[in-house]
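Homework help board

Subject: predicted structure for assignment chain

Our instructor gave us this sequence and asked us to write out the predicted structure in C-alpha cell form, then describe one feature. I got the C-alpha cells but I'm not sure how to describe them. Can anyone check?
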Amino acid sequence: MHKFALWAVAAVVSVSAPVLADQPTAELQALDDALPGTLINDPTRLDWQIFGADQTSKPVKGESIPGGKAATQITIAKAGATLFEAGANAPITAGIKSGTDVVVAFYARTVSAETSDGRGRIGLRFNQNVPPYSGFGDTTILIEKDWKLYQVAAKANISIPRGQAVVGFQLSGAKQVIEIGQTIVASGTTSLTTKSGKTEQSATTDILPQLQGKGKLISNPANKDWAVYGPGATHQTVPSPNIPGTGGTALLVRTAAAAANAFEIGAIVPITDSIAEGDVILIGILARTAPGGSPDGTSKLGIRVQANDPPYPGFGENVLTLGPTWRLLQVKTQAKTAIDAGKGVLALHFGAAAQAIEVGQVFVINTSQLTPSSNQ
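My C-alpha cell output:
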C-alpha cells in the first residue's frame, strides 16, 4: 500500500496499543510509525491561523477531497505586492534544529485564479511565527485545477523553538481561490513518498538541461522569495509562463533611477552549502529586460557571490547585459574566500540604471563538488 493511503484514515484509525510518549494520541502515533522521519504536526487539524486584510476563508468538506475529506478554502481579493501579505499558517508541534531535514506534503487545488495560465500561486516557507519571522525552504508552487499532492523539502539553516514553528502558505501572488487539504510535516527525512512526477515539487527543483552534470547544485531554484533592498525601487513576484524550464514566476524589480553604486539596489539569493577557497562556481541566471523596462530593451544586472555578514567578503563580480527575451546567462568564477554553509548568498544588483528586470530561476553550482551522476 502507498504510504499516503494512511492519510485518509489518520483521524479514525483504531489502535489497541497504548499511546506512546512521542505523539499525543494513538492515531497520530500510528501515522508516525508508518511514515519516514518523525511526524511534527497534527494532520487532522485545519484550525490554522489565516491572516491578511484581503482574504476570507471557510472550511469545506466533500468526498472528492483527498486525505481527510476536508480542506480550507481561502479567497484572495487582490494580488499583493508580496506573496506573504495574506496566507495560512499550519502549526508545527515540535522544535526544529538547524541542520535538520524537514519536509511537508499537502493536497491542494485552484478553484479560480486570475493568472495567465489559470493556475494558482502558493509561496511556502518553514517559518518562525514570532519576530523577526526567520525561516527557510522558500518555494513558489503553481497549483493545478485538480486535487494534487505537492511536496517541499528543505534543510533548516536556523533553529526554531517548540511552539513557534509553522508551515506558512503565502497566497497573495494572485487574485485567486485556493483550497488546501490534509497536510503532513515530518523531520529527519527529505521525502514522505518515493512517488515522483508532476504532482510533486521539491525545494531541489530539477536543473535545466544546459546545466545538468556540471556539479553540485548549492541553491534552491524554486525559491524566489528573496530579500530585496534599496531606495527608489519596487518589486513583486509576477507570473511569467514563457520562462524556459519550470520557472513559472519571476521577480520583477523596477528602479526609478540609477544608484550611486549598482549594489545599493539588490536582491539576496541564498546559497545552501559551504564554499571552499579555490572552488569553481558556475552561476546560471534566467533573466530578461521586463516589457517597457528600457527604450532599447537592454538592462544591466550585476552579480556577486558573498558572505551575508559584514564586511561581506566575496568574489565573482560581474555585470550581465540583458535583452527583451529570456536567456540563460552562465558565468564561471573561482572562490577567493571560503564561505560557511548557510552564510553565503548570490547578490543581484539592479541599481546600474533606471530599468525593469525580471529574474526567473537562479542556479548556483559548485563544479568542484561533482555529484555521482555528473559527467564533465
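Reply (TA_rk): Your C-alpha cells look well-formed. For the description, you could write something like this. Residues 1-21, 194-205, 371-376 have pLDDT under 50 and may be disordered. That's the kind of observation they're looking for.
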